[in-house]
Amino acid sequence: MNKQTRDIITIGFALFAMFFGAGNLLLPPYIGLQIGDHVWITILAFGLTGILLPFLGILSVVKAGEKFEDLGAKIHPLLSPILGSAIMLCIGPLIAIPRTAATTYEVGILPSFPESSPIITSIVFFIAAWLLTIRPSRVVDIIGNILTPLLIIMLFLLILIGIVSPIAGYSDSALERGPSFTLGFIEGYQTLDVLASVIFAGIIIAAAKVKGYDNTRSKMRVVITAGVLSSIFLFIIYGGLIYLGATSGASDPDIKRSELLMNISHSILGPYGNLGIAIAIALACLTTAIALVSAFGTFFSSLSKGKLSYTLLVTVCCIFSCILSITGVDNIIAFAYPILSFVYPIAITLVLYFVFFNSKVTNRLPYILALLASSVVAVFYLLKNLSLLSESSLEALNHIPLFQYELGWVIPSALFFFGTWAISGSGKQKELSELR
After folding, report:
1. Pure H helices in 188-327
2. Spatial separation of the C-alpha atoms in residues 164 and 180, rounded to whole Å
3. Which of 43, 71, 97, 423 is the S-S candidate for 321 at Cβ 3.0 to 4.6 Å?
4. What pLDDT, on a 0 to 100 scale, did the predictor assign at position 177?
5. DSSP notation for 292-311
6. What local confidence, expressed as pLDDT, does residue 335 receive?
7. Distance between CA atoms of 286 and 139, rounded to whole angstroms?
């Protein structure tokens, strides 16, 4: 095996582990429980928001430069600090990082130690995360060479046995194919991976440069190939976990996500199931927490131009996340969804239009108006999910194409983007490259 192949595997495994955290392990089985035999259509939907879009997020940053700030600067100078800060708070101390510790406690610790304290667990978890994050240059190698292979082995074992010897037949479900697709698509938001991808891309690109891939061509080849490798593993594991949920035999559709996962692991692996899933949970959550804490510290240190040190930001992030993690997984997920329904359409609009049109449309105006259109629709989604809209307002909004499928931003953003492009042309006077 040559050096480049080894580096691609290390970086690809690290990227997989960064993405595969608490929500990625808990969400797919719960989705499977709801959709009966509509497994493949749901896997496809979940894969769009949980795999394909995160890969495109990485690709957008690679095309723009070396970090999210380069992508934001291509569109407008204010985009990076505003949207970047919103993304970092979502994937950082407000939602994703606390969820990793909460999941570790509920699935990894509580079943074996019923008298254990979530406070003690969270403190120990974040001390470990802090120690492994304080030296950011070692993050990728620690994750890619040591922690991820153990995680993948545990998950593959669980899925393989569950497919060969299913616990039960497909669960009963009232959902048709359309709603099953919508459920998978929406739940993919909860992975937070599209948001994380534009931040993780900077860590992965930096790791590639440290390993000697300095020129643009070699750097892109290594990062993109590592992204493909990561995506393949994510697809296999997501698909397997959705199938395990659909054939779990669970009769209570309102079962807690953590309890469902524990029931599946115990049924498949027997008395060693709880231990196995506890190890998998701890590895998945710790690797993701390490990456997210590191990304949080790096982003805001750069945004403050070094006035806030990386060490200080990492420390504050760990303390704040530790406090929020005590509220529990389901509470964090419930709190997260309205926020994500606002941020996600904006982030997806940015990623999609830049990846597919940056070489053709150099005028920044179509991008700005597309983002504004998505932002307006995203505000309606936020109000809807906070139950602040009347029935008549909801009925009116459902006339927006795809609105009821959480895709109401697609048509308005496309109309503004392509309409502005058609009117203004490619716009040589306002090229994206001039906005660096």
Report:
1. 193-210, 216-246, 257-269, 273-303, 310-325
2. 25
3. 97
4. 85
5. HHHHHHHHHHHHTTTSS-HH
6. 87
7. 12
